[in-house]
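User: Hey, my collaborator sent me this sequence without any context and asked if I could get a structure. I don't really work with proteins. Can you help?
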Amino acid sequence: MNQELIPVVDENDQFIENKPRNLVHQLGLRHRAVHILVFNDQQQLFLQKRSLSKDINAGLWDTSAAGHVDAGESYAACAHRETIEELGVCVDDSLSFLFKLPAKPETGMEFVQVYRSLHNGPFTLEADEIDGGEWLAIKQVSQRVANDDPTLTETFKALWLKFEG
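Assistant: No problem. I've predicted the 3D structure and written it out in structure-token form, which is a compact way to encode the shape of the chain:
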């Protein structure tokens, strides 16, 4: 069982206490996450296919990189760490903050800070986290979201609708 500590926060994203990740999810407590949209020079978006071994959204397609903000970590530091851990690349030179989604059931009770970056790959995907990935044209992504594609995570669909809007 994953015992990493993540910060539990209130409705205003203010820190309350650190709790084990599995307990935070089990109890539906508000917490923090980042999602990074990695685009290439052809304006395609890299989507990752989450590992079938993941406890949440196993086998579904999601943002290029994503993860929980750890205890004592900032959103920006988490975005840096997650791109290195999941994709094997540093995107700090092109990483920019886009927007923040509120914590609600569609986001798994996560406040989600969304970032954008530019990288053409290749990537070294973290095998324990990701089963694969592919580049998609923005129109393809938008069409899948518009069709409420069940192979996409709910969080990705919510953030893509905000990104397009």
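In plain terms: Strands lie at 5-9, 15-20, 31-39, 44-50, 61-62, 65-68, 96-101, 110-118, 130-137. You can pass these tokens on to your collaborator as they are.
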